[in-house]
Amino acid sequence: METKSKRKTHDGIETETLNNSKLMKLFEEELKDIYWAEQKLTKAIPKMIEKTTSEELKEALENHLGETEGHVIRVEKVFEILDKKATAQKCKAMAGLTDEAEEIMSDCEDGAMLDAGIIAAGQKVEHYEIASYGTLIQYAKTLHLDGAVSLLEQTLKEEKAADKKLSEIALDSVNAQAASEDGSDLW
Ligand code: FE
Ligand code: FE
Ligand code: ZN
Predict the structure, then answer these.
(1) What pTM does this model have?
(2) pLDDT confidence of residue 10
(3) Which ligand is closest to the CA of 164, given by its number?
């Protein structure tokens, strides 16, 4: 553990040992949540890759799948820093986001429309992860967990880059293609 045992707040009140603090509890809970979410994504992204027809999108998803496997490992390293066993706790938000992704994939027609739907679902996932890692980093900073901060920041950077890449693919090709195809016979 790299936390300090006692510290004073700005108004001089001695706080609880950081290790046992309420913020530490929140940090652990959030970590279990993202651990579940990242593992879920290692299974959900391949399904998206399978349905994609855009070569550019397929490549981006394959690249982020590899990164996501690394995110799982980084979360495990953060558990190690805490001296805790890596434990996953169902993230209801990610379960919902991946359910929705499946729904989009079954509703959309193969091709540009499906690709645009996959990008939309993927970006919602990335934004959830960006929010989660942002929170985890803030907690880790307050808890003086410097090693954890740097691991979590590396992942956050990759989540942001993945989101940006998806925006670019949508703008460059996929959305324009979907906009040019007739959808009047769909739902
Ligand atoms: Fe991730
Ligand atoms: Fe969650
Ligand atoms: Zn991601």
Answers:
(1) 0.89
(2) 52
(3) 3
- CATH 1.10.3720.10, applies to 17-180: no
- Return d(Cα 48, Cα 121) in angstroms, integer: 10
CA of 155, nearest ligand number: 1
| 3-class state of residue 14 by DSSP | strand
Note the pLDDT tens digit of each residue in 37-57: 999 999 999 999 999 999 999
pLDDT tens column, 134-167: 999 999 999 999 999 999 999 999 999 999 999 9
- Ligand closest in space to the Cα of 162: 3
In 3D space, the residue among 176, 182, 135, 140 whose CA is nearest the CA of residue 159 turns out to be 135
CA of 75 to the centre of ligand 2 (A): 14
Q: How many CB atoms sit inside 10 A of residue 96's CB?
A: 12
Amino acid at 175: N
For the chain, the structural domain boundaries read 17-180
For the chain, give the longest Cα–Cα distance: 68
